[in-house]
Amino acid sequence: MSQTQTQDKAPWWKRKDVKETATLWVILSVLIGGLAGEVIARSMGAPASETMENTIRMMKIFTWVSAPVAGLVGAIALKSLMQKRHYGDTPPAESDHEIANSPKASAVWIVTSGLLCLFALVFGMIVMQEDAKSLQAPNAIHVNVTGQQWLWNFDYPDNAGVRSHDLYLPVDRPVIFNVSAKDVKHSFWIVQMGVKVDANPGYITQTAVTPNKIGVFDVRCAELCGLLHAYMQSQVHVVSQADYDAWIKSQGGRA
Amino acid sequence: MTTTMDRTASAGHSAKSPLIEKLNVFTAFGLGIILAVVFYVLAAKLIPEDTDAMLIHTKHDQIILLAMIGWFIGFMVGIGALIGPFRWLLGKDLSHDENMFYAGKDLGTKRYFRYTTDHKVVGIQYLVTTMIIFGVGGILAMLIRTNLGNPEGGWIHPQAYNAIVGIHGIIMIVGTIIMITGPFGNFVMPIMIGARDMAFPRLNALSFWLIVAAIPPILSSFFLGGIMTGWTAYEPLASESPAGMDGYIMFICIFAISTMVAGANITATVVRMRARGMTWNRTPIFIYGVVASVALALPAFPVFFLSQIMSAFDRAMGTTFYNPAGGGSGWLYENLFWLMGHPEVYVILLPAIGALMEMAPVFTRRPLFSFNVAVMGIAGICGLSALVWAHHMYMSGWAPLLNGPFMLTTELISIPTGMLFLVLVGTLWRGRLWLTVPMASIYALLWNFMIGGITGIYLSDVPADGALHGTMFVTAHFHYTLMGAGLTGAVASLSYWFPKMTGRMLDRRLSWVSFWMVQIGFNVAFIGMFLVGLAGQPRRVESYNAMFNRGNMVTTAGAYVIMTGMLILLFAVVDSWRNGIKASDNPWFAKTLEWSVPTPVPLENFATLPVVTTDAYGYGKAKS
């Protein structure tokens, strides 16, 4: 059982190997958190909606929160590796202790991971509610999205008869997408805005977003839909409200 | 050889029919092919033609499915799986001699090609089969990566590419499910608990030969138009797919039966047949990993089986389980699939981590840290993994209100997973590290599984999943868990138990070279894949925007390094098996029971059954 550290007079936190591990822990945590957070932010590119900004920020925070866990595992593993190594065909001498348990360490570990878990959950819930706000916005415009093998159709129900294969949206205005499909499942995904929902034949699903940057962004299909799935791509043109009205008019709508 | 009176009577009867001695893998393949052809021809003749007036055309699928059922029946009859049940129907049982023959007594290498019941033979059969499956899956993986070497899509036609992706996926999933419980669960586990064989030796043989019977249908789908759905076979795309889909369906149905049979058998063996004195507290942690894995598969695979039967009915009989036009729903399929699909990843992981936890005390020469926490972690994962399936469906639009609850259960699973990390690093701490491939594999697992686990936390979060679902990020994440953690554990198990299974040591130099190549190649390949996934490359595409070019090149280069490492391992296994250094009975000086029996392990393992008085982790100062 845990009649541990009988050979050490000093309290455990003053032992040399514990101190070194603690130092290593801090270094590794900062390294992992900084490096992974930076890689994530850079790879995900410039966000084009608040939803995507939230997502990137949240992923960075999750990285920083899990970095100490990864750092501690790394520190203990590395310190053990640096201490006593043995090569050869016969085993090393038995280790100099027989610690089989430490209820304290286990309890701290489990409680901490429980708290981290709770943090991730609550934080995720808050962001989820935040992102859902666009869906309830009274001034939202609607776009009906229909996936078919292998292209996207965008209908603008506020202007009956307007249909396009490239999506046009006004900046800073919530958009609600009513998504469906003609044949098989597709998944409607605006990459830089971080929103996605499957397009199901026979059903309508919804997602919403508020674009906050003028520019051209990507729509890709995120659900394998057969032969030319890879080519089922389109573009979103986010333009000013005036340009949007002009575009609607040019397509025969009322604006 | 003691035969009682009534035994001699039934032996006298069976002496007239030495059929049992004639059946082997060749008769199985022969009869299987003959019946497949017969069923095909009869079905093509007798089933009425489809007409243009029909809403869906079913004849072709009916013919193909019937031919595959013919193959299945023929193969199982040809291998001799029905001899036992048939005897029972006649009110008799196999004689002692026949049982000995079944166990492979005095048969030499021939027993590996028969319906042999000895668990050690089944273990070796599983090992070789797993390696063949990984070989096929690996070739497909290399085709995928080569095709993705440049952005415009390569030289593979999109239809063939989709088939390759789907079959790579499903065949690797099957390979990883059996890679530890098959070879080591069968060969090592009964000896480790001090049993003479499995609880149901004939079911053991059955579970193995079912897998062999399942493989031709999935390979045949290459020649039937392929499957274009990926390994998930989502509806309604699956209904639209060519007849290759029928191969997938048959493959899953037969494999699911095999898994259920093996699961029942292994569970019964561990619950009922542990040696005297081996209480649950003294049962090695590897056994917990294996039992948890198969216990999880027991409820999961019937659901998978059912989902595919319904798929087959939709294709061949015109039902509309998944067809919204007839009142069905593709979401129904997704639910059934992931009810199996999420427990299944832990079916793969738990034995791998269990095996490495088993090796940790041996190679650190100290007791396993916190056995109870390890058991709690395994049990916790088992319980929770049945409650997380819909996190694969956050973005499906099925039930947005359920996203919160599923986020909760999914994130909770990080607690028991964390416990397993605690046990491993706790065991490393202040141990004397004997640096062997299994020891290094523990480090590789900590590294890979940490990355796989933390990326899993991002994916468990609904808003982040909005950006990451369906991208290469997901592909990289599950390769980190299933390959980086799972396969690493399996390779470690191979080099750890190789001496007991073959009597020889696995070549040390080659296995080190292979270890480093695979681990480095793996991390290069899949970190590259994480990056393109974060940047927005969808999964399962055969061409991609030029902006993803660099990441894909890195991944492809890494994949070639993995391949080289795996080929070196294959060479090491074959070479060491034939002329490696002879191993002693207990080369690692370990304390579990399988090292206490002589190598090669005799039939029925123990001359006298052992009595256990302590756990197997009594390393450390006081015991040396």
TrEMBL record, chain A:
GO terms for molecular function: copper ion binding; cytochrome-c oxidase activity; oxidoreductase activity. InterPro entries: CcO_II, CcO_II-like_C, Copper_CuA, Cupredoxin, Cyt_c_oxidase_su2. The chain crosses the membrane at residues 22-41, 61-82, 107-128. One of its GO terms (biological process) is ATP synthesis coupled electron transport. One of its GO terms (cellular component) is membrane. Keywords: Copper, Electron transport, Membrane, Metal-binding, Respiratory chain, Transmembrane, Transmembrane helix, Transport. It holds the Pfam family COX2. Signal peptide: none annotated. It is found in: Membrane. Residues 138-250 form the Cytochrome oxidase subunit II copper A binding domain. The keyword Electron transport applies. It is a multi-pass membrane protein. NCBIfam families: CoxB (TIGR02866). Belongs to the cytochrome c oxidase subunit 2 family. This is Unannotated protein. The lineage of its organism: unclassified sequences, metagenomes, ecological metagenomes.
From TrEMBL, chain B:
One of its GO terms (molecular function) is cytochrome-c oxidase activity. Keywords: Membrane, Transmembrane, Transmembrane helix. Gene3D superfamilies: Cytochrome c oxidase-like, subunit I domain (1.20.210.10). GO terms for cellular component: membrane. The chain crosses the membrane at residues 23-43, 63-90, 121-144, 164-185, 206-228, 248-273, 285-305, 336-357, 369-392, 412-429, 441-460, 480-498, 510-534, 554-574. InterPro entries: Cyt_c_oxase-like_su1_dom, Cyt_c_oxase-like_su1_sf, Cyt_C_Oxase_1. Residues 111-613 form the Cytochrome oxidase subunit I profile domain. One of its GO terms (biological process) is aerobic respiration. Pfam families: COX1 (PF00115). This is Unannotated protein. It comes from freshwater metagenome.
